[in-house]
Amino acid sequence: MAEIAIRTATQDDAAAINDIQNYYVERSTVTFMTKPVTLEERLKWLDGHSEAHPVTVAVAAAVIVGWGSLGTFRSAAAYGHTSELSVYVHHDWHRHGIGRTIVNDLVERARALNHHAIVGCCCSEAVASIALLEALGFARVGHLPQVGRKFGRWLDVVFVQRLLTPA
Predict the structure, then answer these.
(1) Hey, is 93 helix, strand or coil?
(2) Fewest CB atoms less than 10 Å from the CB: which of 13, 45, 64, 85?
(3) How far apart are CA 48 and CA 66, in angstroms?
(4) Phi, psi of 36 (to 5 degrees)
(5) 149 pLDDT higher than 80
(6) pTM listed for this prediction
(7) pLDDT per residue over 74-105, tens digit each?
(8) Across 101-129, average pLDDT
(9) CA distance 144 to 124
(10) Rounded to an integer, what distance in angstroms lies between the CA atom of residue 165 and that of residue 167?
(11) Which domain holds residue 95?
(12) CATH code at 60?
């Protein structure tokens, strides 16, 4: 197995990020997006991230095999020390420790940026993703039944949270 390196994403990574996420948009409930993201939309999304909310890519054997980001949790100023986690691993690279590596890196980046909490929002069907986050210190803090609809079905959402600094 190739060594996994994490680095900050650049505009040149937009197509690879899209390829990874759009695979799940069209085939899975791990994202509630229903239409693939265009390259133009992805470039704008990357531009919208700041140093306080980084986007990273995982690289193995010179290939992008996953990505993650810390995003704004809510727009009100009081949420400024909380970020929302997103992590996607290329479908051919599951079970190689990539998701774990991305999450651990983002937690350390969040801590260095003085974030207080990280929130994750997962479809309840994403059992492996929820288990990974729980193994990495995230706790289930909420369950919202039937708040999403995809592939003709109602879907539940599970919220997880990890506090980074003492209250």
Answers:
(1) helix
(2) 45
(3) 20
(4) -60, 150
(5) yes
(6) 0.95
(7) 999 999 999 999 999 999 999 999 999 999 99
(8) 97
(9) 9
(10) 6
(11) 4-120
(12) 3.40.630.30
